[in-house]
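Quick one: structure tokens for this chain, please?
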Amino acid sequence: MPPPYSRHVFVCTNRRPDGSPRGCCASKGGEEVRLALKRAVDAAGITGVRVNGAGCLDACERGVAVVAYPEGAWYGGVTAGDVEALAESLRPGAAPVERLRMAPIPKRNG
């Protein structure tokens, strides 16, 4: 049996304590983005895509953080208003949403 999905999208829903200097995707609407993206993918009839909630993607200061695989497109500052464009980018052969793409994240110590 072939794998049921050809693409996976992870939406950060990580919660840090209030006042964390890095913030958290949960307080920036991560769960709302996840639900809206799932609905948008379904409504558009896009198949072979699984939208999952994720724990920490180590990018909450740029959140809501989203990553799509297999292409490895990382997005930051995603809002519910961006999900239609993200859903369309998940169609076979579609381009990533450049205005939401993250610059590479510098490695942290610890």
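Residues 30-43 form the longest helix (14 residues).
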